[in-house]
Structure formats: C-alpha cells, structure tokens
Design a protein that fits this description.
The protein is mainly beta. It contains 7 helices and 91 strands. Helix 3 (1125-1138) crosses helix 6. The strands form 23 sheets. Strands 26, 27, 36, 37, 38, 40 and 42 form a 7-stranded mixed β-sheet that branches. Strands 73, 74, 76, 78, 80, 81 and 82 form a 7-stranded mixed β-sheet that branches. Strands 1, 3, 5, 7, 8 and 11 form a 6-stranded mixed β-sheet that branches.
C-alpha cells in the first residue's frame, strides 16, 4: 500500500488536449480485499471519508468536514497548466482508492478514472493497477477502550486499556512513549485504595508493573488495589477513571459511645441502655461495603441492578457463670451468679452497605450506631457481640474481644470462694501453692432469699490478712487484690511450717470500699515438712551450680562466702529459719578437703577447722578464701546433723568442687550485638547533626568491662572486683562504681545532651564525654591490688530524642492541663486548644532543632466508621438500590456525596497530619464532634527513635449539658419542659435568719456531672408565690441587711457550683428559688420545690406597699451615617421591620433576669433622633412627631402616636438628610414594690445589669440583631410620672399557685412543716461523680439596727408588728 497521513500528496493530471478542464474533483473509494475484511486490525478503520483540499500535514480534522465532499474548481487553476490539487482524507482507511472526476467543458459529460500506478523512463509509460492507500490518523489524545470497571474487588486483578485517537476519536496505529498508571484518591476515607499493585510483568524501567509502551496505538495495564476505597481515581495516560474498591467483611468493629459500662440495677424496672458505633470491616479495618451491599449504583456493575436487602443483626446470647461462695454466719449465701438479663438490640438492627441504617427503617438511632438494652435482671460482663447470618466475630476497636456492659446490683458484701471449688482445699503440704477468689456481691431488688449476684461496680481492692498457728508456719498472700467486674484472685504460697505438724492459717478478706460489710474468713490447712538434708546453695559471693552441672568458679586470695542450707523433704530451702543451735559447731575439716587446706576459713579453731556459730537459722555461711589457684573440693561429710525434732541426723550429700583462678587484668567487653562504635558503647541509636553516633537522653548508653585470668580467660568466678569509671566533659566530672558479678561489670551511663550551648542552627557542635576506668580488689590481708587503668574511652555523645507524645487540653492560665488519655471529658461542640508535645526519656520536650523528633510528622486518626457522611446525607440513601428506594440508574460518581472528613478537625487546613515545631504543636481551635459520647482518636508517628510504630490513644467523652440538679437530693432529669428539684431536707423550713446553702451540678443526659465545665455560672433568684408576701435573697451587707442590688452569681468548678452565703429579707410560705445557668449550660433553668421561709414566732407582716412606678429607660441601638432622605427612610423602615416588640422584651427580660425584683420590660417607642442635639434624649415632641429637628418615634401599642403616618416618615427623612441619626429605644422596666428599694438604687442596678451584659463576651442581648450595635453608655433611666400596673412576674421557671388563703399573721406552727412532695419524675440515677461536701457550717450573724418612726430598719427593711424585744448581736458557733 502507499501510505499517507491525512496528507494526500499532490497529483497532477494531463491530457494530449491543450484544453484546460472545466472541473476536476477527487473522491475516495474503499476497496478492501477479502483478507482485509478478515483482519480485525483493518476493520478498525473506515472508508477514508471524503477528500478535502489542503496543503501540509493535517492532524485536526474538523467534525464538519467528516461528511463533506470537496470539488476542485478549474477556474482556480492557472490556465497555463493542467489542474493539480493537494488533498487529504477525512477518515482513516485500510485500503482506499482515489477516483478522479472531470469535465472538459461546462456542457461536456463528466468522466471518471481511478488513480493508478504509473512509471516512466521506458519508451512508453507503464500503467499499473489502481493505487491503494492505507490512511493512518494522527494520535492527539487517549481514550479508554471498552467500558472500564466501576467496581473492583480488593487485591483482584483488573485491566485498563487506552487507545490513541485523533480529535474525532478515530483510532491511530501509532506507538508512542510509555504510559503509567497512578492512584489519585478523589475522596477521603475507607482505606483510600492504595497503594496500587502492578500486575503487568515488569520490564526495563517498569519495575512496578504500572507502566507499559503502547503497541499500534493501544496500551493495557493490569492492576490491583491493596485496600478498600469509597471513591478512588486512577490516572492512566492522561486519562482519569473513578471507581470503588470493594472488600469482604471479616468482623464487626464496635466502638462505645460512652465510658460508662455499668448501670445500677436497684429497681426491677431499671434498664441499662448503651449506644455503639458499628460497621462491618475487612481484615484491614476498612468498611466492607459488600456486606449487605453495595447499594449505591455507581459502585455496582452495570448489569447488577437488583434491589439489595438489608441484613438483620441481633445481640448474641451468652451463658452465665456460676460460682461457689463460702456461706458463713456473717454472710449466709446460698448461690452466686453473674446473672443473665434480658438483652436485646433496640435500634440499628438493619445493616446496609456495611453499617446499621436504622434511619432508613424507622429506627431512631443515628446512622452507623446500634442501641442495646439490658433489663429484667442483673448481669455483669455482657459482651456486645453482634449476631448475623454471616457469623462474623465482633471486636472492640484495637482489641480482639467485644466491649462489655453490665446491669449490676449495688455492692453490699464481700464474699470468698468455697475451698471445695478450688485448689486451696484437700491435702496440702508445705511448698504448695493455691488460688481462691473473692467477690463483690449484692442482691437484686425485692430478693429475700440468700441468692446473690456479682456486682461489677468499681470497689477498688480487697484487703487480705492471715494468722497462722503454730508460729513456725507461714504463708505469703498479697496484701491487696484488685476487684475487677466483681472478681479478684488471691495467690497463696505455703512457704514454711513446723516439722511434721499441721499448719492452720486463718485468712481474712475485707473490702475497704464497704467498711460496714463484715469480713469473710476461712481456714487454710497444710502439713509442714521436716528438714531432711543439707546442701550447698547459691549465696554470698559464690554461685553454686545444680547437681550434675559445671563446676563453681571463684578467685584466689579474695574473701568469699559459701552457703549451706537445710532443705525439706521436697528439696526446697524455705529460708525462714526454725532451727536452734546453742553451741559452736565444727563444720568442715581442712584435712577433708582436696587438696587439704585448699579453703581457709575466716573463722577457725586455730588448726584451720571451719566453725560457725548458729542461732535460730537453717543456713550456714562458711566465710574464707582460696589461697591458691586450681581445683578445690569441699566435702560436707562432717556437716552437723539436724536435730531430732527436725527429722533426725542428716548430712549434705553433695561435694562442692570449685575452680579457683587469679584475677590478672580487666578490659572493655561488649555484647557482639551492640558493637556499633569503636568506643564499645552500646545503645547508640541516634546521630548528632555532625554525624556522630549518640545515646538517647533518659535511656543512656551501655559500657561493659570483664576481668581476665593470667592466661587471658574470662574470670567467671569474680564477684569482688570493683570497677570505677570516671567521666569528664569540659569542667564537668561524673563517677560510676560497679562490683563485678561473674567477672562482668556492666554500666548504664545516663547524661543530659552534650550539645554545646548557643546553637541555633544546624549543624550543632557537641562536647562529648570521655571516660577512664580503674579496676581493683582487696586481698585477705587488706592489700588493694590494682588491675590497671583504661584511658580514652569515648567519645560518648548524648542526644535528646522523642520517645513519646504528651497530648493535653490547654486550660486557662494557672490551671493544670487536661490529659486526654482514655477517660477525660469535654463539652459537646466546645472548641478546645489541644497541645501535642514530643518528650524524651526524661519527660522533657524535645524543643531544639537538633533534637530527634522535634519536627516529627504526626498523623491524627479519629476512630469512627468510615464514610459516614455519605450515609447521613439527606435523601441520598433513598436513591440507592435498597429496599428504602428503587435503583437510581442516573446516579454517577459525580453525584456521590463526599466521603466526609472526620468529626474531629485540628484546624480548617489540617485534618489528618502535621509536623511538630520545636517539639510541640498547639491547635487553638480544635473542632470537636457534636454528638455526645465517647470519641476515640489516635496520634501515630514513625519518627521516634526505637519505636517505628508509636501510637498514642486518646479517649474524650463529650457530654452535652442537659440540666441543673441539686446534688444529694435525688433529683433526676427533667420530665418535661419545666425542671423541678427538691431542696435539701434541712431547708424544707428555713428560719429567716438561716443561710441558703446547697450544691448544684451541671449534668448530662445520663445524669452525670460535666466535670470539664469550669466556665459556666449559676444565677440564683427567688420568687415568693404566696399572695400578699414578698421576699428576696442576696448576700448580707456589713450592716446585716440583705443586699438585693447585686446579682447572686456563682461559678461552676468542675461541674459543681456551691450556692452559699445567701439570706432572705422576709418570710414566705411558698418560696421558690430559680437557678439559671449561663455559659456552656446554655441557659438551663431549674426551680426548687416550694419551701418555707419561717418568720420569728408571733410576728405580724406589715401590709404590702402600693405598686411601684416602672423605671423608664432609653438606650441607643445604632447610629446611621449621613445619607439622603430616601436612604434614611429606607433604612429606618428596614430597621423598624426587624424590631420585633416580642423579641426585644424577651431578650431584655433575660438580660435582667438576675435582678429578682424586676418583673418584666415593655417596649414603648423606637425613635430616630439627630445626633446634633446637645442632649440625646427622647422628648414628648419626638413621641408626638412634632420635633423641630426632625426627631420622631414609632410607637408600640398606642394608636395615639403620630410617627406612624407616611407623611410624617417622609418629613422625618427630609429633616434628617445629611446628618448622622441615632436609633433610640424607650422601654419600661416593671419592678416589685415589695423589694422596698430606693429609686436611685433601682435605676443604678438596672443600668449596671444592662451594661454588664452588653460588654460581656457571652452577651444575651447581642444574640438578638436588634442589640448588635447597642451603646451601653447611652443608657438613661427615670421613674415614670404615674404608677402603672405591673406585668405578670417574669416566668423564669415555674410559677406556683398561691394558697387559697394568704395568712396575715404567722402563728408559731404546732409541728415543723415539711416540704411539698417532689412532683418531678423519680430519679433514675444520681450523678456518678460524688457531690462536693457542703461548706463548713459558718456562724450565723444576726445584726439589728434601730427603727425609724415608720417601723423601718435603717437600710429600708420592714419590721414586723408585735416584735417587742431588742435583738442583741450574737454568734452561734
């Protein structure tokens, strides 16, 4: 074939005629041969398309040219020549011919001929067959061949093929350069698919099998994915393809949402409910979408569109364990079991795409969670094991076992195991060991029999004591044994006894957690063994081998101790004495040695005979020395016999052979595995910035010496040589001394960093330590023998190196940081400042640039089910192939929600990894999850020396403030909108002079204290709801009167506020105290049940005062810049449209809520005033709309106000054009006249309260857009001219109905009144954190002041008629 590249070449045609043709056109004609029709490669190409005029190489054919024919117009050809044309094909072609059509004249008939092969040079031209062209297109891009897979299996091979095509997607037969496949994860989470595994054979530079060279315009690479992936993207030959990687489930991973694992079973109706995150995981912990899925259409092959049904899961059953307790007179106990409660899955029972999808099936749990419930009976250690048709095991995160929960009885007694069910019963002898268990137990509700259950509450440890008889008997038991899930195990070792006597040991078990529970006792009996033989044992300075082993070794002319001991019938030395010797006894005769006298006793009778004086012991030390080298055999035939009481006369039966050598020298010696430097130091695992091997600060370097004999052998019997090492570094010195053991003196040298001071940039210089060593021993005559000195040992460098992380929540200045290891708490949704520090072995931060790990790369990994954001996206799961909806085939990868980042976010730009800077990193605004419960996250790094896979596990329990509660009163959680708690019993009737005192806790939905809350505050107010009575509370003034002008506000400390030092200014038969929490508790309100403030007996209340006039208050809300009249009119109109009277009054009521005598606010006017006024105040002319300077008001609730007309509004806008305008509000504050406060004091307290709120970072008012720019300095107050009826009391919690008749005279009660019954729901649980103890009782001080003529105390408080005595200042201690 002739071949052209969409370049026709140039053909010329000529004729014998001199006439120039009128028209010439060229066209292509496909004429494939039969072989071409069978050749698949040729069949990829078409018929060449049409011929298009053009010159040069064309690689970009316009799509509009594909269907057009082109004629060469003869008129364009110069008339002096025959026409010629440059043309190109518009399509590829495997075999195309060119047909020429022409007309000589416009009226002649068109003729055609085929271009043929033509040769010249002969006498006549040679004409051959038609020219056949193979047309090859230009490759300008790649496209995937076929349909790439949309879902693949993990570690299963799949292929991607790309074809080189032109811009019209016609294939090219070109080769091309090598193309490679790379992974580009397009969505985070769930394994991220990688790394890619190349399955194509490696060749040349393609070492990973991910690259290939195209052949005839196509390239295929075979791949596999190593991990699951929600949505992955592979880039191949400049093409990208999205797909998912599916894996098979091997287990369920369950993560608790609360650190509380045990709930009290104190009532037959009590239940325990827990929630857990659950997902089906593959062997790598990635989510297995194939478990009951995948239901998402883009994750499914195109042919698989059948509906996916969920898999139902349940809670696996468990068998109970029974124990055999010892029944005693102090604890008659018939049975003891763990109990089997009714356990069931209450929500989250349907799994789809690998996670519970309760929300799709009308279950209340959040997506990805299950709820389980234990009820009807006590039960401890109930595993949260998921049962399903797949039979998969359940694991807790990071463990092989499922988490456990318990519905447990309260612990009331300690019990011990009956010895019939353990090995502490039966026939025991001295030297035996046994175990018994102790239990923390209690009874189920309403049980009257002696049937007990284990209690899994934390009770600490049991205390174990014993008393044995006779005195020669002794056992060892641990003093304390931890009780876990109600069970503890005690190990008993029967170490000594009398000679052939029965030992009886009374073992007593107590539980300090339950001081009133009776201790439990039982007697352990065993037989004491007789001492039957003597033998040499290791002790002192000689290591004695076991029988049949190598000889002992010692050194010449150094004092050693050899130990003989009496053994019992089991060949065991008890070491507890028991033998009494009264005289000096001959033990070893030097003539019985081999050779004679090879051991010289330090104590002898003068002839070398060794003697000892023994008293109340069963061991003998023979002290002496070996005078010469060689082998010395000590025979024990003449060793003293044992007394008859110990089993008769008995001798040692084994001779002791000792190889004696002389210590001649010492040298450095190191383990072959630690030969890492010429200086013979071990443990040099890091390198200084100058390249010197170094030891780690806090871990140290090893340095080892050995002593040697005269012939150079190791002196294994040397236990006396002293080795002294002296270190120097500049002017510093250090000294270390070690006594050789078995001829080896081993040192572990620890020093601070050797880096020179002042280094700020790498490399840093170091001044290393250099060492010298000296060895010596003392002869028996006292002479010190030196073995020499070794010098120039070193250099030794030390580097500070990170070996661990410290992670903590940074709290306020002066407060300790909160450790975030498992068990810490925080408040839901509250941002935290998180501190991450790398520390060395000494606990110091690796802060220097040279410190290893100071810039470590840390990975932050929240522990949660992957890709949860996909399933929680509103409406998305309804489009999947599940029973929740029909398959939506229109879904594409572009439609898929993002996998979603973790609920924990370190910062806006950093979610999963970061680098330490100078060994630390602080994240001031860590975003925490918004769901209550336990949240686990990890910090991992591979940058720490000696720990290639360091993991720091943190667990923070997030608590959502749910309610305030009075601690110690049994107050439960709110049963409805109104939350009411009983007062402490001692406050049911409170004397007027008595102090209000109790503790308040901020609790979560499980009624547990939120101990991380030390920022909230509790505002305390009082409302007397009895008709005709008025009483308020406050602290005492110095004059003894009650200060009502301050807000009674108390800080939360670790979730508890102590309410104290508050007094009432008058009696009340129905007093309700309201507590409002400000801060993290988000305005939670709690009322007390009504209680009585009792007046002194016989007193009569003064009549109530008339209603007080409201306090008229004005304040600037905003200032508008100068603008034209139209602008002012529009802005005023818009601003007034947002100024809701109800919202204004609600916000202001809340801000003034701390002033208990304030009964509410009423918005009267909203005014626009020019700021050019000398005094910015609202005048009557402003209210009437007649002010000369254009000031005008919008009235609320009165039709008489003139500012409502459009004409007036236009006039205002015109008058105020071009000047700054202040928008003012005028409102009334209604107060209770019963507070008996002076007007000036009222005005000041109201102004101060509003100002304090507007300037607070937690302002109540500024949450309302009306007050966003309010100016507290503009506040003015004045008493209204005429009293107005007060509004109903501000509802801060609960308003109680007054009694049907309001008593005027308070007669002394015949009996002490009791508080009203608690109308709140019964408490299901008290806060699990112990309430703070009440403050110590303070002296009650009653101060009286003289009365004025109206019967008022100085300070403005009413006295009561009939109190005809003078009360003297007194103190009750």
């Amino acid at each position: 074939f002739g071949q052209i590249r969409l370049l026709g070449g140039k053909w010329a045609m000529q004729s014998t005629s001199s006439i120039v043709p009128h028209m010439v056109s060229l066209g292509s004609l496909w004429q494939p041969s039969s072989s071409e029709l069978l050749d698949s490669k040729m069949m990829r190409y078409g018929n060449g398309g049409f011929m298009v005029a053009g010159a040069g190489s064309v690689c970009s054919v316009l799509p509009t040219e594909l269907g057009l024919a082109y004629q060469v117009n003869a008129a364009t050809v110069p008339p002096t020549s025959w026409p010629s044309a440059s043309v190109y094909f518009t399509r590829p072609c495997s075999g195309c011919q060119v047909q020429v059509s022409y007309q000589m004249t416009a009226s002649s008939i068109a003729q055609t001929f085929m271009l043929k092969q033509y040769a010249t040079g002969a006498s006549l031209p040679i004409v051959g067959p038609p020219l056949v062209f193979r047309v090859v297109t230009c490759g300008v891009k790649w496209m995937f061949g076929g349909v790439p897979p949309v879902a693949v299996r993990r570690r299963k091979e799949f292929a991607l093929t790309v074809i080189r095509v032109d811009n019209n997607n016609f294939p090219s037969l070109e080769g091309g350069t090598s193309v490679s496949a790379t992974l580009q994860t397009s969505s985070s989470g769930n394994g991220k698919g990688g790394p890619l595994i190349g399955m194509s054979p490696p060749s040349g530079s393609n070492v990973d099998g991910l690259s290939t060279t195209p052949h005839e315009g196509s390239a295929t690479v075979r791949l596999a994915m190593n991990r699951a992936c929600y949505k992955c993207r592979v880039a191949y030959a400049l093409m990208t393809h999205d797909f998912t990687v599916l894996s098979d489930a091997t287990r369920f991973i369950v993560t608790p949402l609360s650190s509380v694992t045990t709930v009290l079973f104190d009532n037959s109706s009590d239940v325990g409910t827990w929630q857990f995150k659950v997902y089906a995981a593959d062997d790598l912990g990635d989510r297995a979408y194939s478990f009951a899925g995948p239901s998402i259409p883009p994750f499914r092959p195109r042919y698989a569109k059948s509906i996916v049904s969920p898999i139902t899961i349940g809670l696996a059953t468990r068998a109970t364990a029974a124990y055999v307790p010892l029944s005693t007179t102090t604890l008659p106990i018939a049975s003891l079991t763990e109990g089997i409660p009714d356990a069931r899955l209450t929500n989250g029972s349907k799994i789809l795409d690998g996670i519970p999808q309760g929300m799709l099936y009308n279950e209340e749990t959040q997506t990805g969670t299950i709820a389980i419930q234990l009820s009807a009976a006590s039960g401890v250690r109930y595993p949260v094991a998921i049962s399903s048709s797949a039979g998969l095991p359940t694991q807790g995160y990071g463990t092989f076992d499922p988490p456990q929960v318990g519905l447990s009885v309260a612990p009331t007694h300690v019990a011990v195991e009956d010895t019939t069910s353990n090995n502490c019963g039966g026939t025991l002898t001295q030297g035996d060991k046994c175990q018994f268990r102790v239990f923390s137990v209690g009874k189920e509700p309403l049980v009257t029999s002696d049937a007990y259950h284990l209690s899994s509450f934390d009770v600490g440890s049991a205390a174990i004591t014993y008393n044995c008889a006779p005195a020669t008997c002794a056992i060892t038991v641990p003093a304390t044994v931890p009780i876990t899930e109600g069970v503890g195990t005690v190990d008993v070792d029967m170490v000594s006894g009398g000679f052939n006597v029965m030992c009886n040991c009374l073992i007593t078990t107590k539980l300090p957690f339950l001081p009133n529970a009776p201790p439990q006792e039982f007697t352990l009996s065993y037989l004491g063994l007789a001492l039957t033989s003597w033998d040499w044992i290791t002790g002192g300075s000689l290591a004695v081998p076991q029988a049949g082993l190598a000889l002992s070794e010692s050194v010449v002319d150094q004092v050693v101790d050899i130990k003989l001991a009496a053994l019992n019938a089991n060949g065991v030395y008890t070491g507890l004495g028991g033998l009494t010797w009264t005289t000096s006894l001959v033990n070893v005769d030097p003539t019985a040695m081999s050779p004679a006298g090879c051991f010289v006793c330090s104590q002898s009778l003068g002839d070398g005979t060794c003697t000892v004086s023994v008293s109340n012991t069963d061991q003998i030390f023979l002290s002496g020395y070996f005078p010469s080298e060689g082998t010395c055999v000590l025979f024990a035939k003449s060793v003293l016999g044992l007394p008859t009481s110990a089993g008769g006369n008995a001798s040692a039966t084994r001779d002791l052979s000792v190889t004696v050598t002389a210590v001649a020298s010492f040298a450095l010696s190191m383990s072959p595995s630690t030969q890492d430097t010429p200086a013979n130091f071990s443990g040099l695992s890091v390198v200084t910035s100058e390249g010197n091997p170094a030891a780690i600060v806090g871990i140290g370097a090893g340095l080892q010496f050995a002593t040697y004999t005269t012939v150079g052998d190791a002196c294994a019997g040397d236990y006396t040589t002293n080795v002294t090492v002296i270190g120097t570094r500049g002017g510093e010195t250090a000294k270390f001394v070690v006594v050789a053991s078995g001829g080896i003196a081993a040192f572990n040298i620890k020093m601070p960093t050797t880096r020179d001071a002042g280094c700020t940039a790498l490399p840093c210089t170091h001044t290393p330590w250099m060492f010298s060593a000296e060895a010596s021993y003392i002869q028996t005559n006292g002479t010190v023998i030196s073995l020499g000195v070794l010098s120039d040992i070193g250099p030794l460098y030390f580097m500070s190196t990170a070996v661990a992380l410290q992670v903590a929540i940074v709290t306020s200045a002066g407060e300790a940081s909160v450790d975030v290891s498992m068990g810490s708490t925080w408040v839901t949704g509250l941002s935290m400042e998180l501190s991450v520090k790398g520390v060395d072995g000494a606990g110091a931060v690796v802060s220097h640039v040279e410190d290893v790990g100071s810039s470590s790369s840390i990975v932050f990994r929240p522990v949660e089910a992957p890709c949860m954001a996909v399933d929680t996206t509103v409406g998305f799961m309804g489009k999947t192939c599940s029973t929740a909806g029909s398959c939506d085939a229109a879904l594409t990868f572009a439609d898929l929600p993002t996998c979603g980042g973790p609920s924990w976010t370190l910062s806006d730009t950093m979610t999963d990894s970061f680098d330490l800077a100078s060994g630390t990193r602080n994240f001031p605004m860590v975003a925490t999850p918004t769901t209550q419960g336990l949240h686990i996250f990890l910090f991992t790094t591979t940058s720490f020396a000696g720990n290639a896979d360091y993991v720091f596990t943190a667990g923070i329990e997030l608590q959502t403030p749910t309610a305030l509660t009075i601690l110690g009163t049994g107050c439960g959680l709110p049963a409805g909108v109104i939350h009411v708690c009983p007062v402490p019993a001692a406050m049911a009737v409170l004397p007027l002079e008595g102090m209000l005192q109790f503790t308040v806790g901020n609790v979560d939905s499980s009624n547990r204290l939120i101990t991380s809350d030390s920022t909230s505050e509790v505002v305390v107010t009082a409302v007397c709801s009895a008709a005709g009575e008025s009483s308020y509370l406050g602290p005492l003034k110095p004059d003894g009167s009650v200060n009502l002008l301050v807000t009674s506000q108390f800080p939360m400390v670790n979730g508890v506020a102590t309410i104290s030092n508050l007094y009432f200014n008058g009696p009340c038969s129905q007093m309700v105290v309201t507590l409002k929490c400000l801060g993290l508790c988000d305005g939670k309100v709690m009322d007390t049940e009504p209680f009585i403030i009792k007046a002194p007996p016989g007193s009569t209340l003064a009549p109530p005062p008339p209603p007080a006039a409201p306090i008229q208050t004005t304040m600037s809300l905003t200032t508008l810049g100068a603008m034209d009249a139209a602008g002012i009119a529009n802005i005023l109109s818009d601003y007034l449209a947002t100024a809701s009277k109800a919202d204004f009054e609600k916000s202001m009521d809340s801000a003034l809520g701390g002033l208990q005598y304030v009964q509410g606010t009423t918005l009267k006017f909203m005014c626009a005033l020019p700021v050019t006024r000398s005094s910015l105040g609202i005048t009557q002319a402003d209210r009437d709309g007649t002010a000369a300077d254009g000031g005008s008001c919008q009235g609320f609730g009165s039709s008489a106000m003139m500012g409502n007309s459009s004409a007036a509004a236009e006039r205002v806008a015109e008058a105020l054009a071009g000047i700054d305008v202040s928008v003012m509000a005028e409102f009334d504050v209604a107060v209770d006249s019963g507070a008996m406060l002076e007007t000036t004091a009222l005005e000041q307290s109201i102004t101060q309260q509003i100002t304090a709120d507007l300037t607070s970072p937690t302002s109540i008012l500024k949450k309302d857009p009306i007050f966003k720019t309010a100016d507290p300095t503009s506040l003015t107050t004045v008493v209204a001219l005429t009293p107005t009826p007060t509004r109903a009391p501000l509802v801060q919690g609960t308003t109680y109905a007054p009694p049907t008749t309001a008593p005027v005279t308070l007669a002394p009660p015949t009996a002490e009144p009791t508080s009203a019954p608690n109308t709140s729901a019964p408490a299901t649980d008290q806060p699990t954190t112990e309430p703070l103890p009440p403050p110590p009782e303070e002296p009650i001080v009653v101060i009286t002041t003289p009365l004025d003529s109206s019967g008022m105390r100085a300070g403005g408080f009413a006295m009561w008629v009939g109190l005809g005595v003078v009360v003297v200042l007194f103190t009750v201690l």
